[in-house]
Structure prediction request, 308 residues.
Amino acid sequence: MKNKKGLQISFAWLFAIIVGAFILFLAIFGTTKLIKTEQTIQDAKTGKDIGILLNPLETSFETGKTTSLTLPVETRIYNKCNNNGMFGRQIIQISQKSFNKWTETNINVGFSNKYLFSESYTEGKKFYIFSKPFEFPFKVADLIYITSSLKEYCFLDAPEEIEDEISALKQKNLLIENCANSEKVIRVCFGSGSDCDINVNYNMKYVEKNKGKMYFEGDALMYAAIFSDKKIYECELKRLMKRIGHLALLYKDKSGFISRIGCESNLNLLELNDLTNNFESSANLESINYVIEDIKEKNEDNVLCKLW
Prediction:
């Protein structure tokens, strides 16, 4: 009889332990899911906030602008580019460190009117964001470059105008000459050099890094190539060409309108539209630039009937 009662007590305790463990599991599981959900929401919000922060950097002035962004935790800003559709899409995805692990989220924050140039992802707590207007031949967009404070870019033997611009920006991770040797320094050489991480041929208009070449026209695209992965650079460039093509058609319509009042522009805007529609890579920029220079010259010479 005593043995039977003892067995009953043991079973009751065993049942209580099992039920308690199950409740504890549900509590831990629910809390973990809640934390992940809250982190996903926070990642999405941070991505949206970054997009909003980029707005004040968009300017009609010729000079560049810079600002900084400091986040409370270690953050990775993933730069994703999609060139499908009319203007393609700029996509930002955020991952932040939580409990010493990077969060995983599939939530993308997208913009159709922004052009962000960076590595595939940029990591740190503090980021520098630098923008510069891109004209080709009219104002197309403001190009935005994002870098981490964990990396410093040392510009060696740069043309005077580039040195002056970088000095005027006063962005702490952009340096001119006399750069300390450390793992965080990326050496950007305008000319030959065996210990360079990035080589810029300013005359032939290309940037060479990671054994790949990215061609550019103008300083805005030069900076884009310096700070970008090749894949990002080429994708964003295709998006810009789509925008140029549409703008060319709008200016063509405008030229037809002002011709009614005796203003003749005679610009090769349809040819420009055709070239941008058939754009494949940055290697095509040189051929497009011949048309761009012709359009720009004719528009500037036509003082009384400028289209832009």
